[in-house]
Amino acid sequence: MILEIRKAVEEKLEKHPERLKHVLGVYEMATKLAEHYNQEVEPIQIAALFHDYSKYDDLVDQIRYIDLKLVKKYSETPVMYHALAAAALLEYRYDIKNKEILSAIRKHVWGDENMSMADKIVLISDKIELGRTYPKVEHFRNLAFTDIDQAIYEFLVDNISYNKQQGNKIHDEQYLVIEKIKEQLDDKTRTDN
């Protein structure tokens, strides 16, 4: 199955070589993190390969595969549409019902209040794959292998700050995700002490 998915992604992104390079980088990073955290590797690999499948589809095409409630929910942050559409397409075209795979694709943009380890691995791999070059990326890469929750938390805080400076709309859900991860980190700190 994974070879079939990879071929489909390579064909879809053949006119976008930089995006394909990114996707393959996410695949490599997600594989390493899955192995590091003793997770089942193949579902995470499939999610990593397919996470940006709909990235270059027109918004109209993306919306066609998304529940109307979600279209409305993310209308001011349509960057979410490609993740939701990709998960729907993977389920529809390849009859993949694995909730872990579909969830990791849906949540790779900024996460969710309830994330599995697979969700976390695909999300952070998307942000830290070796082709990414931005301030602090090396810090996030290292941190992802020691404390994935802390890496995601710090990345999301940084990302919101960057997007605010750029004048981009921040979805309320992004703040909720950060708040939830912060609570989990605080709980972990209390438990460790």
UniProtKB/TrEMBL annotation:
InterPro entries: Diverse_Catalytic_Enzymes, HD/PDEase_dom, HD_domain, YqeK
GO function term, MF aspect, one: metal ion binding
Record's catalysed reaction(s): P(1),P(4)-bis(5'-adenosyl) tetraphosphate + H2O = 2 ADP + 2 H(+)
Key words of the record: Hydrolase, Iron, Metal-binding, Nucleotide-binding
Enzyme class: hydrolase
Entry annotated with the keyword Hydrolase: yes
UniProt superkingdom: Bacteria
The enzyme's E.C. designation: 3.6.1.41
Location of the HD/PDEase domain: 15-140
Transport found in the keyword field: no
Protein name: bis(5'-nucleosyl)-tetraphosphatase (symmetrical)
Origin species: Alteracholeplasma palmae (strain ATCC 49389 / J233)
Taxonomy of the source species: Bacteria, Bacillati, Mycoplasmatota, Mollicutes, Acholeplasmatales
